[in-house]
């Protein structure tokens, strides 16, 4: 390739995904227009799957180097991209049974574009690229949220998402511009160095808060979480899957990058007796609010999706605890947690999707006796719920455990114990609502005249695979920890 | 060898999950065989342990690294105290299966959850890595919830949730303490033996001990955190309440001993008096409240709180004899509580569908169900602490050990014993013996089945055997109390 | 037969016989009649064993005979320690004699005979065990073992108000047992001993009191005496309820009255002796100082028991209750003798004869009263049977005409209970008074009132029931059948034999009495 196209080389995986998106559209318009909905879904979806797989294979070949003008590709980012693609793959498979829209080509195309946005988001440490990727991610998601034209909730959710999201993006942009004004650069590493050399000005705090606001929105941290319940409930289930899983992984990665590389020295302190201004107290406040609000609101939910939404808010709060650990443990615990969480929540929403597609709805009461009607599906939901609650030997438990240990071990030692106490307490309370779901599934009697139903095989297979992964990563987390450790040490963050 | 108790239980649970749903007989037999295998392994393991030298030392069963970062190992080990409790679990497990022989609804799932719970309990008693212990401790919570929520009786959903949440809050407290200890020690390991060598500063131990101890003691029914116990026990189906009162409450006491007291002996001394006071309040309160209950099962539920008070008091004495009494009482009460719940739940409630004492009295159950009456009388005598049953030796040791440090509390505990006799006699008379001369045949109830008789005889034999030959268990417990781990506890001070 | 079988576990085997017999009765057969026979056979076997024991016992040998001692729970000072001396031998023999007697009396029991006879055998095992045990642990075990069968025997086969009687019996006795248990726990905490012999040695020269105060006292009790007194009271209560001593006797009249005949025979004949035995074996050696210190109140209680129970008996209209109160009265004499002996503690030879006499009298009275009381209950039971449930004093009259042999034999029993010379009751009461009059003059003097009142009511029975006009409804009153005559004959014979030749018993009791005196 000649050098003018050299910039394309590191981005080949994203390009593959985008090409697949276009292919999906073409396939739909040209070839599959006449076929039935099911056949179209499978056809286009398979094309999308192939695209993802191809991208994964390309990344795994591991030939990209780390240097490009505005990109920062490290073994960590490549690993995370594989994870993101895998998550998207599962979402696509879940969508095979989708009945909420006829515009399947557009659906898969938008999904893939959003995926490309995700991958781009984690590929760069230039604030402008990050912002662009954020928009690339968000705009398709707004549209996808509204995809269920038959549902009023879907439209409302999309509107809320769009409005909230736009405002948040505006805040982020403002923050980025302040940073540029303070340092004259958009590269995160340089920004960090330049900020470190300067004295602290009040404007800096404004920049910090603004920038973080956008990402706090993205990870649904309280008090910027208000979009989450409506969007998770209103959006079609596969999209909720996607938002809950892939988007979270990428957003946390970027958040980590910005904080560590950009604001690193200005951490301040949130330890029990040594409060100092910086991003640590800010994150501590966000964490506490998220955990408390998320868990308490979830206690009273009667809709499984909303329950999962508030649980997502709470889990965002737990994940923020990672930032209080020392540098190595921070990233290790954060990524372990976020990856296992995304697997779990993807599985949970997938189950919701399957149940919805089979004619049920997401009201808790309608899930009564599911254990008898769909044993394997319910067993997987059992695994997911308990993993979210943090019950060993599932991955959720180890993830939380590792987070808490990292937070307590960070300097000063035992300083963040108060935050961990809040987290542990919140986690304990959360068992209540997870058990409510499981109680409905297993303890309640199925309504009279209900039949056992058979979920579609590809979806069931993926869900079972996810459940298996959750169990495996819980019993033997060493594998993932080791892998993350290796890629972290070989990546400059 | 002993580690197989854990594996077999989980394997049994998995096997049960794979059976077809309607196969009740196969489910029961599988469960029984698994429980018997667990008991057999426990007995063999105990015999092996007793023969090995030096006596009382810790025996490593499995010690492989598990998660490298932080250093968590899959470390199972046993000493005399663990083995005593493993034996208890084995016996109660078998008895519980026998008493659940009549479960018709969703039999296979019941036994699968039951065996999973047993596996978790075995795991706690044999773990010597704190993380692993905590994992097994938490694993035990979920089967409990479902056993009560699905097969329970009075207010089962409320009871199940209360139990699960209390347990989880307790374990949350323990988790915080464990993480804090891990970080504070800087040892980068969760192994109990290594951590117990670390001299934690006193200021740290002061609160860490309280946190971890109370966290465990919630499950042991320490007053005033005991309120889950009566409600939970009453709501649970028979086998579950046998396990709950018999074994699961001992998890809490064991955790308190093995973790809180071993890691933080100085902190223990700081709180010794307060906890002993709470323990004795539990003894007296439990007994007094049991005296006025109208529901048969609530009497037994509160009596469990009272008996566990003895365990906690024994632990606080920090004398060899007191600790020995505490461990022996854990075993003894486990068997006796199992027996009492079995009679109340399975033999009586399943047949006459009422537990109100006022409703039971006219039925003259001593004539209708003589086996149940005799069993209950013997179980009640054991519960009172009459010589010849295991409770006597245990309570004697606790009282003797406690006298040295807490004379006033010991007298109160003795008063609690008296109240214990009173409520038991009251229940004897009210539940089984009618005022009037009722001919049997007015109410027909089905005879006590063979599995029930077998279960009752097993438990009775256990309590009488240990009552007459306490040496069988004391030979396991006493040498262990001489081992370095416990000597440090008894004597206090740096390792 | 002078063969000494020292290490042969004769006592354990003796105790095992009724235990196994009880089990065999319950499980061996489904037919009631066969089960009864099996039970009776075991009781005869036990009697044979007791007789063997009697024959092989060497009165002149000091100390415990047929000792068995095995370590059981060494860390708690619990040994399996058995042994027998004259006192124990008397009690064992008494129990062994009474049980077949009681069984024969209950032969026609209608309801669930299997369980009834099995419970009697378990009761016998409890009795044997209590009288041979020398370590608190299994002594207390057997003590309680006697309690539970007795409760059921009253509860299930008793009279119309049996529930209340059984409950009262159980609760009172249990309460007494519990205080005893707690007191012994305190003793254990102070000395680390459960063995009666070792405790007795420790108690000499006030050693026990010192140990109690040293280990337990300081913080809670101001003086050594108070602490020792509290512990003493605990043990005392247990025995006082059992004996019984007034005012702890209130359970007894109802219990004896409601109990079926065979049970009443055993209760009054053997079980009440457990209480007196406890005073002699446990309380006296361990707490001589306390007993001496509380001598006056104790004597008052004993005297009160004697006099008031006799008066109460006089006031009864129910024959069975009369015999019950009379039972309290007779045991009161035993307690009088014991409390008299403690007046002089310490090894003064001066009062040796009197003290020995009193103790001998106590032991003999235990044996003799056992015989007469059970025989009396047997006869009252027969009356109740023949009359279809009536047993009021005023319900009968002139039965002598209809059943002369009945009257004669019951008369003999009444006179024996009265203390007529020539019958066994006289010797024991004489010895008690011989010993206690010099020691505690006033108490003994007042107690003779009891003798007088007893004479009155016993003669009243004779007069009201047997003399006077025969009512029409009793015209068909049957005299004693051959079976009944055979049943009661051994007892009557013994009453004569022991009245004329008390040496048989004294030869065994005296060495035991002398050994006991050495203890305090």
Largest sheet of chain C: 2 strands, antiparallel
Number of separate domains of chain B: 1
β content of chain B, as a range?
under 5%
Element pattern of chain C in H and E: HHEEHHHHHHHHHHHHHHHHHHH
Assembly form of the protein: heterotrimer
Mean pLDDT of chain C: 86
* Amount of helix of chain B: over 70%
Structural class of chain C: mainly alpha
Number of helices of chain C: 21
Please outline the major beta sheet of chain B. Answer: 2 strands, antiparallel
How many angstroms separate the termini of chain B? 30 Å
Shape descriptor of chain B reads globular
Order of helices and strands of chain B: HHEEHHHHHHHHHHHHHHHHHHHH
Rg of chain B is 21 Å
What does this structure look like?
The complex is a heterotrimer of chains A (493), B (495) and C (520). Chain A is mainly alpha-helical. Chain A has a domain at 268-493. Helix content of chain A is 72%, strand content 1%. Chain A has 19 helices and 2 strands. Chain A has helices at residues 12-31, 37-61, 75-95, 104-121, 127-145, 152-183, 188-197, 202-218, 227-234, 237-262, 279-299, 304-320, 327-357, 370-373, 375-389, 395-409, 417-443, 457-475, 478-489; strands at 269-271, 274-276. Chain A has a two-stranded antiparallel sheet with strand order 1-2. Chain B has 495 residues and is mainly alpha-helical. Chain B has one domain. Helix content of chain B is 76%, strand content 3%. Chain B has 22 helices and 2 strands. Chain B has a two-stranded antiparallel sheet. The longest helix of chain B has 33 residues, at 320-352. Chain C is mainly alpha-helical and 520 residues long. Chain C has a domain at 295-520. Chain C is 75% helix and 3% strand. Chain C contains 21 helices and 2 strands. Chain C has a two-stranded antiparallel ribbon. The longest helix of chain C has 36 residues, at 352-387. Chain C starts with 9 loop residues before the first helix and ends with a helix. Chain A binds chain B through residues 332, 386, 391-393, 397-398, 401-402, 404-405, 408-409, 413-414, 417, 420-421, 424-425, 427-429, 431-432, 435, 438-439, 442-443, 476-478, 481-482, 485, and chain B through 66-70, 131, 134-136, 138-139, 141-142, 145-146, 149-150, 157, 161, 164-165, 168-169, 171-173, 175-176, 179-180, 182-184.
